[in-house]
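User: Show me a protein chain along with its predicted structure.
Assistant: Here is one chain, sequence first, then structure tokens.
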Amino acid sequence: MCGVAGIIDYRGKTNTVTAVGTMLRSFSHRGPDESGIYNSPAATIGNVRLSIIDLQTGQQPLSDLSGRYWIVFNGEIFNYIELREELEKKDVRLKTRSDTEVLINLYAMYGKRCLSMLNGQFAFAIWDKQKEELFLARDRVGIRPLFYTISNGVLYFGSEVKALLRNREVKRELDPQSLSQIYTFWTALTPGTAFKDIYELSPGHFMTFSRNGLKTERFWELNIGPNRADLSLPEALEQFNELFTSAVRVRLRADVEVAAYLSGGLDSSTTVAYIKDIEPGILNTFSIGFEDKDFDESKYQEEAVRYLNTNHQSITCSSKEIAETFPRVVWHSETPLTRTAPTPMLILSKLVRDNNIKVVITGEGSDEILAGYDIFREAVIRQFWAKQPGSSLRPMLLKRIYPDIPHLRNASPNILKMFFGYKLEDTGNPLYSHLLRWNNSNHIKKHFSDGIKASVNGYDPLEDLSGKLPQDFDTWSTLAKAQWLETTVFMSGYLLSSQGDRMAMANSVEGRYPFLDYRVIEFCSSLPDSLKLNGTNEKYLLKKLMTGRIPDSIVKRPKQPYRAPISSVFLAKDKPDYVNEMLAESMISKAGVFDAGSVTGLLEKIQKSATASEMDNMVITSVISTNLLYHQFIEDQNQKYQNGPLHNLKVINEI
């Protein structure tokens, strides 16, 4: 795992090695082992390396055998061994044992067609010195990040936004439309980011940049459409087991130790069980617990550890620790946040790194591809209720899926109607499954400043998203639509970024995700809905598969969404000084995103009632994180978090 950065300037600037070096230093946490820069008259590309495969000879930048193409690569190609064998059959003799060299020579042979051959998580840049053209590509579901901007005809790209902002030519400004999206969907819609004129390469896309300009194309997309495989449950179990075994096996390929997260849930317990089957022996696992018992899953973690016999370490996270760590989380996330949930993941990855481990396998992706989230069940129940909107019995089904939320568990039909009845009968809306969630998030925007409101006047994020839906989306089932929205919008933009790549790589740890093997995704997309969501029984296929292989209590336990405390973090008497600073009227006015009077009024209301609703918590988190982002990236220009060192830097100059 690594970080990449580069500048393409056909005017032939002379200081690009220094500039790219500065860009690389901004995220040296992504690659503390080695670094390198390739420099030519038009292109300067660089890499910081977290060495995991081929520790001795896998340094970057690396060229193909002809020397025409040069690559900087962030990620892993898990099937590189098989691809290497294919190259050798064509008399290609490689100099290293790295997946990077396999990738660059595949590109030299097949061009963009090589992307369909790759099973991995990647973001890479290839410079064709003959054509003077840059090729950029990102993996199918956006596990690894890649950002870019163009200023005065010059392309800047990097694994993190902060690298681009190291260049004076790149503007530092928050984007109002993206903020409107973030405070609807919790993330900006790709290819947008929180920053104006800075973009991310969308998942499953590649891009070329030459003297003729920029061109972007898609090479893969998620399809959960109406054409489904006609499989019985035993057939589906057999095929999934075979695919998932392969997905786990290839993700164990490394020249360093591979560990795993074990949260006590079905997904992480499944991945650990498969690892133990494939490679019996000692497996290091890690988890996080909370002092606040409303969020803690420690008893399930302990049960899974005993059953699976792992060498386990856990850390207990306090609200005070979350508060103290949150500014660093915003720095690494590079986006406003509505929740504190990424923070414990940063703390957990530090525990992993403190144990000298670089790679962890995790269970992310299972909920999306196998219909594990409450929002999927909620959509199906709401659609059923909409057929008889006056019914007092049908809304009561919603109590089954929220047993961990007291005010819903004991709610009357009228309360449930008030809470879940938003656009209940708008079942023909292609965004139906998520309308309630996004409407709740929209309440954050009531606190926007007049300036931001004026900037986004007439702009509707839902209309924007509707224009990005697949052509045949209307023919998909309710569940399929909900899965596409959750996977395409939320998983890539929020989960895999703010809680995945950024929190792990902040401590130089690589996460690997077997459930997001593209073969597993495509197989699950082809399954009948009933094998994923059976009535209101979520992840039906996975539960059937794991019965008898992990503790029964974990298979049968209700879905507990991963959350972290907020009120006790930001409203405690002993909260860190920055909280008051970010909530001060002067700071709110300076950042210009929220209205100081409106936020102050909310804080006074909370103080009087001594309680904060879930929406109040989201508003507070949003204001603090947005103002931190402004302070760190625009006002102070990253002064608090200095550039890191570049280790073992080599520069390849080509005239």
